[in-house]
């Protein structure tokens, strides 16, 4: 029997070889485990990874490349003997005696485990240290034989011997009892796939640096298959050549072993974006499907050929590299199978299939049926997904569908798209328009006016036809009143906003709809938050989110608003789940309220002292809004205000004041817009304007602005917490300690019932000092005293992560003489030396030093110098 030497050595490493530390760390952590199993497609890097790992180990190892001939037990035993001779140094005499014993008739008729028992005893005799035994290509033994061999080896190998296995297929090993004992490590195809970072690292290693977007594209094309990524790295200037070479490799290693029916099934998968078992049965025909193993899709999934897809129930999508290998004589015609598909699958899924197959006519037919129900459910995502395949000419043939898309553009603040849809609608012949078309057109024009800042015109146009709203579907009645609600909120008219919201609730109670209940709950909660009633808002939002409704636009807005309220209450862990839910839904629905979630992420990053991350989040949000064609006046004010807040933290007063000033003037020119990303957004931006004035020591201007805002909030005192905190800081810097404590006490009184903590987490340490002094004056054990103590504790926990205090806020300007004295203090001169240098009396020097300490709010000469350096006075 001839055994080639290459059978006992791992395959050579390729030229482009990346050391994948994340996987090597997993293997190293599992070095003591009984079994290590790597399962994945050919070319997924199993053998190379094991070789890199074993070369790092100090323990010896044996390598055996299995092939189909090893299904002959005599050849398999001979291979095992050679492994022992090469690695363990077993004498030729002992091996010969063992081989001769295996030739005995009585042993040949016994099970293989009986034949292997002497080999196990020999291994136990010759190995007293850790040994790794690699069986590469386990699937070549056949499923039953491989399973039987592995189970016996795992149970019989000496304790210091570890079994390392690779397989292209899932051979259904039953190793659960070893897994429970933490003696098993399994790396599947998805674990072995190259990540985007690893792709970038490999190309960098070959002096072919990639942008992250390019690496993400390669990862999508290859699903991270190691062989494909390496080929693309080697021929990076012509990626299609690498894909062609990879396809050839996969054809030779995968497709040649398929049965006719398996090939047909994969060919069907290659044409459709997703396939599940009933659909596969339908397109293959019952006879062919009967020949296909029921678990084939699961088997292919373990191999890495297919992955689960969200497009169909229990559906699968094919590896993109395999699509180029498969073809059929005729393409799948969905339209011809529409009756059967409609009976077995929801229409939105069929529309997605039609979109993927470029069956535009079928898609248009389906979208026309689905548009109004989806709008009634406030589910914009599918309609936006399908819109890319529908031309303007196609939409003009369906006026009702065109109006639905116009409503969606209005909902999502897409001003330019709304204008384009209205222009298209105006070109349609009058006899082709739906009965309610003229009314909807007028209302959508009013919405466009509101987005353009022409608020009074929008309000007049809506109120002129307000009595006719009852002729529209309920969802449109609610949306029109929502526009009136938001316009009233933007002007601070919360009573009017609540009245419109109440009318909508009456209609929804008569025609229950979970989507509209969530929408109106979100709308009412924004009113409550604007009035400062946080606990009411929490109750409304929690009840809305508890509804068993499919996630849609209102679900995301409820989640984001609840996360915002939890942020105001300084309870981010409670709001984290809602924030993630809201961001995910808003991203899917292309909802500009996504910005409110990004603002929260940025605000919390700022509070934790992660300024760079806070800036990055805001920049990404701005880029996202631009890609969605949302008008800048919708999102830019909030983003600019937060950036100015970050600049103030860094002491960039002039930059912050310039931008806030431009923002204020821009708002005056454009008027109120129909979208507020957070309740009281304009008020919040004006408070930041006041903070900028404070940073420039313009105390009177800042105080006047806050007084004006306080007058606007006269009807809603609970909303004044942030104002009172800022006014307390102004009084503190003006040395009016009594007034500062009075204002801070008012803020505490308003904040405690609503558990509103966030306004007290100022970056200025002065506020914490003021709060500490006030806490000592409160009645011990009272609700207000406990609340103040909680605030101080939370501030202490956050102090290490807070940005450096904005010291520019906390000093009065120094006189020219005081600056000279300060400069000499920094040189280390004594009072006497300073007096002699400046030709003044020592008494005068002491007077200047006292003034410097007072103005810089420090207690020693050393602190004064340090403070002056931070203020760039030295």
UniProtKB/TrEMBL annotation:
Pfam families: GerE, NPHP3_N, TPR_MalT. SMART domains: HTH_LUXR. SUPFAM superfamilies: C-terminal effector domain of the bipartite response regulators, P-loop containing nucleoside triphosphate hydrolases. Residues 807-872 form the HTH luxR-type domain. The keyword Glycoprotein does not apply. It comes from the Bacteria. Keywords: DNA-binding, Repeat, Transcription, Transcription regulation. PANTHER family: DNA-BINDING TRANSCRIPTIONAL ACTIVATOR DEVR_DOSR. This is LuxR C-terminal-related transcriptional regulator.
């Amino acid at each position: 029997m001839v055994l080639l030497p290459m059978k006992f050595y791992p395959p050579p490493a390729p030229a482009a070889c990346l050391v994948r530390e994340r996987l090597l760390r997993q293997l190293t952590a599992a070095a003591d485990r009984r079994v290590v199993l790597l399962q994945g497609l050919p070319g997924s890097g199993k053998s190379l990874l094991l070789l890199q790992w074993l070369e790092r180990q100090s323990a010896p190892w044996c390598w055996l490349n299995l092939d189909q001939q090893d299904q002959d037990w005599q050849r398999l035993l001979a291979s095992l003997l050679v492994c022992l001779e090469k690695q363990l140094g077993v004498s030729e005499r002992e091996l010969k005696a063992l081989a001769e014993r295996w030739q005995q008739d009585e042993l040949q008729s016994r099970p293989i485990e009986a034949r292997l028992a002497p080999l196990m005893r020999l291994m136990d005799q010759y190995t007293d240290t850790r040994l790794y035994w690699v069986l590469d290509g386990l699937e070549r033994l056949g499923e039953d034989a491989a399973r039987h061999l592995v189970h016996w080896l795992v149970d019989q190998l000496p304790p210091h011997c570890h079994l390392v296995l690779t397989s292209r297929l899932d051979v259904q090993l039953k190793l659960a009892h070893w897994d429970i004992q933490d003696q098993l490590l399994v790396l599947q195809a998805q674990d072995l796939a190259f990540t985007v970072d690893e792709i970038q690292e490999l190309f960098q290693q070959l002096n072919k640096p990639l942008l992250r977007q390019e690496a993400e594209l390669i990862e999508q094309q290859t699903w991270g298959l190691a062989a494909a990524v390496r080929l693309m790295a080697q021929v990076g200037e012509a990626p299609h050549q690498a894909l062609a070479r990879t396809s050839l490799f996969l054809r030779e290693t995968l497709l040649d072993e398929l049965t006719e029916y398996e090939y047909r099934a994969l060919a069907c998968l290659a044409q459709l974006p997703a396939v599940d078992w009933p659909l596969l049965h339908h397109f293959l025909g019952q006879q062919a499907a009967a020949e296909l193993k029921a678990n084939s899709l699961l088997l292919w999934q373990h191999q890495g050929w297919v992955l689960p897809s969200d497009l169909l129930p229990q559906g699968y999508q094919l590896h993109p590299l395999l699509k180029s290998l498969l073809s059929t004589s005729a393409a799948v015609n969905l339209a011809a199978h529409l009756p059967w598909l409609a009976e077995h699958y929801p229409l939105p899924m069929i529309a997605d299939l039609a979109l993927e197959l470029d069956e535009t006519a079928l898609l248009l037919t389906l979208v026309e049926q689905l548009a109004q129900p989806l709008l009634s459910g406030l589910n914009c995502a599918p309609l936006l997904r399908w819109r890319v395949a529908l031309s303007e000419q196609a939409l003009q043939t369906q006026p009702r569908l065109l109006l639905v898309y116009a409503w969606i553009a209005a909902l999502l603040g897409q001003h330019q798209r709304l204008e384009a849809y209205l222009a298209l609608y105006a070109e349609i012949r009058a006899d082709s328009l739906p009965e309610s078309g003229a009314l909807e057109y007028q209302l959508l024009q009013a919405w466009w006016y509101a987005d353009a800042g022409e608020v009074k015109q929008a309000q007049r146009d809506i109120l002129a036809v307000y009595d006719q709203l009852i002729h529209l579907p309920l969802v449109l009645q609610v949306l029109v009143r929502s526009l009136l609600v938001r316009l009233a909120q933007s002007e601070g008219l919360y009573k009017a906003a609540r009245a419109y919201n109440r009318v909508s609730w009456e209609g929804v109670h008569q025609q229950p709809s979970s989507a509209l209940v969530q929408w109106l709950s979100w709308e009412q909660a924004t009113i409550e938050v604007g009035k400062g009633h946080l606990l009411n808002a929490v109750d409304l939002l929690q009840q809305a989110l508890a509804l068993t409704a499919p996630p849609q636009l209102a679900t995301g807005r409820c989640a984001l608003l609840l996360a915002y309220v939890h942020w105001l209450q300084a309870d981010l862990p409670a709001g984290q789940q809602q924030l993630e839910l809201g961001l995910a839904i808003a991203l899917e629905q292309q909802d500009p309220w996504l910005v409110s979630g990004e603002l929260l992420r940025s605000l919390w990053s700022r509070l934790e002292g992660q300024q760079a991350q806070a800036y990055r989040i805001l920049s990404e949000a701005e880029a996202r809004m631009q890609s969605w064609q949302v008008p800048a006046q919708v999102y830019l004010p909030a983003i600019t205000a937060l950036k100015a807040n970050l600049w103030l933290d860094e002491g960039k007063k002039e930059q912050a004041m310039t931008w806030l000033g431009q923002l204020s003037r821009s708002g005056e020119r454009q008027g109120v817009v129909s979208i507020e990303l957070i309740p009281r957004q304009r008020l919040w931006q004006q408070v930041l304007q006041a903070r900028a004035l404070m940073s420039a020591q313009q105390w009177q201007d800042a105080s006047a602005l806050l007084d004006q805002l306080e007058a606007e909030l006269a009807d809603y005192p609970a909303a004044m917490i942030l104002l009172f905190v800022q006014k307390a800081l102004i009084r503190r810097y003006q040395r009016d300690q009594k007034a500062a404590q009075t204002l801070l006490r008012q803020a505490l009184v308003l904040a405690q019932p609503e558990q509103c903590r966030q306004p007290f987490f100022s970056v200025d340490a002065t506020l914490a000092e003021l709060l500490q002094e006030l806490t000592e004056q409160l009645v011990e054990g009272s609700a207000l005293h406990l609340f103040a103590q909680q605030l101080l504790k939370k501030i202490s926990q956050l102090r290490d992560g807070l940005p450096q205090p904005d010291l520019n806020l906390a000093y009065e300007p120094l006189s020219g003489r005081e600056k000279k004295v300060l400069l000499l203090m920094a040189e280390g001169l004594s009072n006497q030396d300073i007096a002699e240098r400046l030709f003044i009396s020592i008494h005068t020097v002491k007077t200047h030093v006292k003034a410097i300490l007072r103005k810089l709010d420090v207690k020693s000469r050393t602190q004064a110098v340090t403070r002056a350096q931070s203020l760039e006075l030295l």
